[in-house]
Amino acid sequence: STIQGGIHREHIAGLREREAAAFRAARPKSEKSFGSGLTGFLGGVPMHWMNDWPTPFPIMAECAKGATITDIDGNVLADFCLGDTGSMFGHSPAPVVAAIRRQSERGLTYMLPTEDAAAVGRLLVETFGLPFWQIATTASDANRFALRVARAVTGRPKILVFNGCYHGAVDETFVRLKSGQPANKAGLAGEFRDLTENTEVVEFNDTPALERALSGGDVACVITEPVLTNSCMVLPEDGFHADLRRVTRAAGTLLLIDETHTISTARGGYTRRHGLEPDIFVLGKPVAGGVPASVWGLSAEVAERYERYLSTKEPGYSGIGTTLSANPLQFAAMRATLEKVMTAENYEHMEGLAVRLQARLLDVIAHHSLPWHVARVGARVEFICAPGPLRNGSEAYAAQAPELEAAIHVALVNRGVLIAPFHNMMLISPATTGGQVDRLVAAFGEVAAELAA
Ligand code: PMP
């Protein structure tokens, strides 16, 4: 098609070209430093997705503080990407910095609990409501370990995912609906298994399909985000979470809620705000204020079943958890985050600005009669270059406008604003200011005017 997101492709390409040139002109030092890729790294980058940013080359970061990031050419950006939620509470929050500084003199990893660990145990129960927790290092790890427990206690082989989901490096979740049929997600490197053998996939917001998929009694666990955030944002329809809980319970299937992104909702996450009742709860990324850490919690019933299961096994079953997980640095940072950063006051500031951002972006879209919409879950706002709301993963996939989004992304960078790549996420932190929101809205307005012209 010659149109994407309501805009002519030629128009998009023109914007992309102009903005790429402006990006380069403002970053001579970065361009020289990055060269044709960083020597010594596969593909020229230490992480393959650093090459996936739509800028001509990655922004070479100098430092970040609060909601501001500065590159080595001295360009200052209002940061709405915030490390794709790893820094949801701002870069280097003061209480976390103090905790890291203190712990850094006292040993970084020793396979033993600390008094901070004792405090974190209490804080996790109090904040998220589930009674029994384990610590891991990434949300991917936490999901993998938790799914293993779900299989152990149910004795069932399968899991169920919603089409379009993302839960990190959890191989078995990479199943998609392709023309209505389950298939391995396209583009998986090195995957030699047919993942559909042990993973069911249905659309989000489709209770009858969910019921059918669970009716065989062989699904250990449904794993889902409360809101699908990893394609274009899909909100649950009224009653869907109640249906999901009712249907999983009836089928003897556990429910794992992955709050890694939706922790943008409130202290305690979407789960607490909306009274969800997961059997298993997972949170990674910002839980230690940017220090790699994740947590997974179990209901009393699942914990009890797991104890019983373990009592039937040979000792030394192992295989769950990794050496550096639950280290004292993680506990120090997590304690500071849970006690002093993930506060109701901070969330109030975050959500207030997010509501304002959403409303003002909608004004811009309406002003230019663009066929776009804006979705929000708490402090997380996303513009989508298609009409909404989106009901499921297939609609979210169809709503993507990769070239258009890439052009907008670079244009915003050139106007002093960084949003998340790939999914147009704009996250508000406790450090984000009204002035930064105004800057984003003004930049978005300029770009929209140019595209609509
Ligand atoms: N769960 C969700 C919902 C995510 O969005 C992500 C990452 N985007 C993960 C898990 C995995 O997190 P990590 O890459 O830190 O392991």
From TrEMBL:
Signal peptide: none annotated. Pfam families: Aminotran_3. SUPFAM superfamilies: PLP-dependent transferases. Its cofactor is pyridoxal 5'-phosphate. It comes from the Bacteria. InterPro entries: Aminotrans_3, PyrdxlP-dep_Trfase, PyrdxlP-dep_Trfase_major, PyrdxlP-dep_Trfase_small. Keywords: Aminotransferase, Pyridoxal phosphate, Transferase. GO terms for molecular function: pyridoxal phosphate binding; transaminase activity. The keyword Transport does not apply. Belongs to the class-III pyridoxal-phosphate-dependent aminotransferase family. This is Aspartate aminotransferase family protein. It comes from Pseudaminobacter soli.
